[in-house]
Amino acid sequence: MRRSTKILIAVVVLLFCAVQLVPFYLALTTAFKEQTDLSSVWWFPFDAVTFDNFSSAVEDGGVLRAIGNSVIVTVVTTVLTCVLAALAAYPLARRRTRLNRSVEFLILAVMMVPPLSILVPLYSLLNQLGLLNTYAGLILPLTCLELPRAIFLYTQFLRAVPLSLEEAARVDGANRLQTLSRIVFPLLKPVTATVVILTSVYVWNEFALSSYILTGNEMRTLAPAIASFFGSQGSNVNAAVASALIGVVPMLVAYLFLQRYFMKGMLAGAEK
Question: pLDDT of 124-135, one tens digit each?
Answer without folding.
Answer: 999 999 989 899
